[in-house]
UniProtKB/TrEMBL annotation:
One of its GO terms (molecular function) is structural constituent of ribosome. It is found in: Plastid, Chloroplast. This is Small ribosomal subunit protein bS16c. Belongs to the bacterial ribosomal protein bS16 family. Pfam families: Ribosomal_S16 (PF00886). One of its GO terms (biological process) is mitochondrial translation. Its main location: plastid.
Length: 86
């Protein structure tokens, strides 16, 4: 099973997280399938590769709670509903 979750990067006390599609059996810093965005909690900035996220969600990937909240703020789920109605 594939999950969309955060992968920690950056320096000490300056964490930046990548949003990655990863197998659930892999550890947090393990090998990911694809990088689909990043999240900077200090500057509160987010970049999402929307087509990649939609691709994995349509294939059955489950986002973690944090990634779900980030995606909800970026209105990715609205685009998912629009694509499903077409």
């Amino acid at each position: 099973m594939v999950k969309l979750r955060l992968k920690r990067c950056g320096r000490k006390q300056r964490a930046i997280y990548r949003i990655v599609a990863i197998d659930i059996r892999s550890r947090r810093e393990g090998r990911d399938l694809r990088k689909v965005g990043f999240y900077d909690p200090i500057k509160n900035k987010t970049y999402s590769n929307v087509p990649s996220i939609l691709y994995f969600l349509e294939k059955g990937a489950q986002p973690t709670v944090t990634v779900h909240d980030i995606s909800k703020k970026a209105e990715i789920f609205k685009e998912l509903r629009i694509n499903q109605t077409k």
